[in-house]
Design a protein that fits this description.
Elements lengths: L10 H13 L6 H17 L6 H15 L4 H9 L3 H14 L2 H11 L3 H14 L2 H12 L16 E3 L2 E6 L5 H9 L14 H7 L5 H10 L15 H7 L3 H10 L3 H5 L8 H9 L1
Antiparallel strand pairs: 1-2
Helix pairs in contact: 2-3, 2-5, 3-5, 3-6, 4-7, 5-7, 6-8, 7-9, 8-10, 9-11, 10-11, 10-12, 11-13, 12-13
């Protein structure tokens, strides 16, 4: 209807439809959320209804919250079939319009099992490329450990090739390792805010030492780059979020970074840093 009646003001109908979807989130299954994704994508394409910012934010929160109730087998089948474009578009909406809470919830969904995670990351790379995979890593993955309480270790345990009686237990940073195997250069890629994956890992109070070091080892130069959002070096940012072991490891790897951290010519104004953190 939106495409057919270009000259008719459909704003009220569109708003009512989107409100209906949002209010009925508790009863929405994967198929309905995918239909909602398509609707939002189509509305954005028409350029007739503005940015839809509030509706996209509602969708991001709703999708992230509902994702854990989706059937794993159905989700995995969609990612490997015709539905992967829609699910990856939903992922893009979550990473762009969601909040930290939404990203945390969505991250749990992506790491539900090693098979699902592999299907998901491959679909992201196939449909949207490295940029979206980087955003997923930064916002939804660095805060988790595969051996942590939010993940079932058994769902990431695999049998050794040619020796099915031997099980290989996952490492805490296995999910990050798999992303690096797909895109080795992803840790050198900045996002739209000029931040690197190491900045996000350092800024996360929940990032495990193993995950932090996996990202650092893949791009050690990032330890010498200030985080644009806070003006802090990664070792400072990690320490400010309670990850003292990670902070100390960065200092051991590059003790000279301390002199750069106290260089008044490079350091941002303290009041400016506080404003950035509060914004």
């Amino acid at each position: 209807m939106v495409a057919t009646y270009d000259d008719i003001d459909l704003s009220n109908m569109v708003e009512a439809c989107l409100d209906f979807f949002h209010q009925g989130t508790a009863h929405q299954y994967l198929r309905i959320m995918m239909d909602r994704t398509l609707l939002l994508e189509m509305l954005l394409t028409t350029n007739k209804f503005g940015t839809l910012q509030s509706y996209l934010a509602e969708f991001a929160a709703d999708f992230a919250r509902r994702a854990k109730s989706f059937s794993r087998s159905e989700s995995e089948a969609k990612l490997k079939g015709e539905g992967k474009d829609i699910l990856i578009q939903a992922t893009a909406f979550v990473t762009e319009y969601g909040t930290q809470n939404d990203w945390d919830e969505f991250g749990k969904y992506t790491i539900m099992s090693v098979d699902f995670y592999s299907a998901f990351t491959n679909a992201v790379l196939d449909v949207s490329g490295q940029g979206l995979l980087r955003d997923v890593l930064n916002k939804c993955l660095v805060q988790y450990s595969i051996t942590g309480s939010d993940t079932s270790v058994s769902s990431w345990t695999v049998k050794k090739a040619n020796e099915p009686t031997i099980l290989i237990l996952p490492t805490p940073s296995l999910h990050v390792q798999k992303v690096l195997e797909l895109c080795p250069g992803i840790v050198q890629a900045v996002d739209k805010d000029k931040r690197l994956p190491l900045h996000y890992a350092a800024a996360s109070a929940n990032a495990s030492f193993e995950v932090f070091m996996k990202i650092f080892e893949a791009n050690k130069d990032a330890a010498s780059i200030r985080d644009p959002a806070t003006g802090l070096f990664p070792f400072q940012l990690a320490a400010s979020n309670g990850n003292y072991a990670a902070s100390f490891s960065l200092l051991l790897a590059n003790p000279n970074i301390v002199s750069s951290a106290v260089d008044d010519d490079d350091a941002p104004d303290v009041s400016d840093r506080k404003r950035k953190r509060s914004s």
